[in-house]
């Protein structure tokens, strides 16, 4: 270390930290081939812990200052980028190295024209429509409109520890008062009061009260406990399939805030039971939107069946409004990104679509999250091939159009707009901003889309790479479809950064891998139980 890094190791008796890394390999891997890996040995005194401790996260002032530091305004971000470029241009060594490769850096950002998509009209129950507006935010409209498909919740159970009984009654009153206003009907539940709040108490009462015909189980928790949460979800989604809503006691505020909390929870419950909240008009007929994501076990430790494995999740729409979804998931080898069980999952979703509509989709919009540039070729050779095989397996004559979109969030590209009233004012581009030229790749069919509204900090666009497209749709229609699907994620009354099917696939993969550790019951496949 002294000779190589000019660092002196003080404690020669300290044990080494061992890190097992896997070697990256391009191309498909035979199923019988083991993952190649190597061990890296680190000296503890030369290492630093990363991330935030639990005490740091609980420190409100520290977290506020950290967020303020990270949320750099567009103007400051732009100035910082220009200063960075200037520093490189003024550095002789950097200029010499870049010149060796024939690279020169311009002294400013690139000025380009962008396309701005029209704000979407959000559809609610009773044929009501509300414009999402320039900020793509329809939160205010939620409490004043009925949902498209409201559920009648008549046979349900609420389990609460004795310490939260008063909050449980107030919450019930708010649910039964606010629910009907948005089209969701709650009857009085069976209220189960526990003297203590041990995990075994919750499991005992769940087993005792989850009987045939129960539509929903709501459990109130006094504190965050992952083991308790996991046990509840596993019983409700694997052992005795029933929609479950877990509510933390400290989220049940007193006064007017409780009404807002009750509305949000009522919406989530409605979605979990198969109800429909809102929609956008989609002009394409006989189509399906599909999301695909993979969850990896970061710790790769544990003794349960699912521990150490990756989970691939596929979620597909089954109706014309993209308000109903069918989900499939499967475990894979540890840290395997490419989903090799895609074919069987897709066949299951196609069957669900056919049962719902009595016909198959003619066009499938696929949104695949979590793929880096280096994996594009591998996805093209494996995942897309599985899709095409799934179509053929379902029926030799079934040949739908497929638009396979790679959705990339972790990118370095930033987009800025200038205020027409002041050229010196640098702002974030609004939701619906599309750039598909100049800064895109010359060898790819790709575009950048800003779908979310960011009021603090600098917005990061989402990069879409259309890896496969045998459809008749124009790039504008493909871009518009991506933007529309960013409006229908039922956990947020506004636009999200990636299409809703991506978000649903991510939530499903995370819950199965992190909480359940086993595949959920097939009886839950037609519900957004993972919200």
UniProtKB/TrEMBL annotation:
Taxonomic superkingdom: Eukaryota
Record protein name field: Piwi C
Pfam families noted in UniProt: PAZ, Piwi
Domain PAZ: 1-51
InterPro entries per UniProt: PAZ_dom (IPR003100), PAZ_dom_sf (IPR036085), Piwi (IPR003165), RNaseH-like_sf (IPR012337), RNaseH_sf (IPR036397)
Coiled-coil segments on the chain, per record: none
Organism lineage: Eukaryota, Metazoa, Spiralia, Lophotrochozoa, Platyhelminthes
Membrane-spanning parts: none
Domain Piwi: 216-517
Molecular-function GO terms, alphabetical: RNA binding
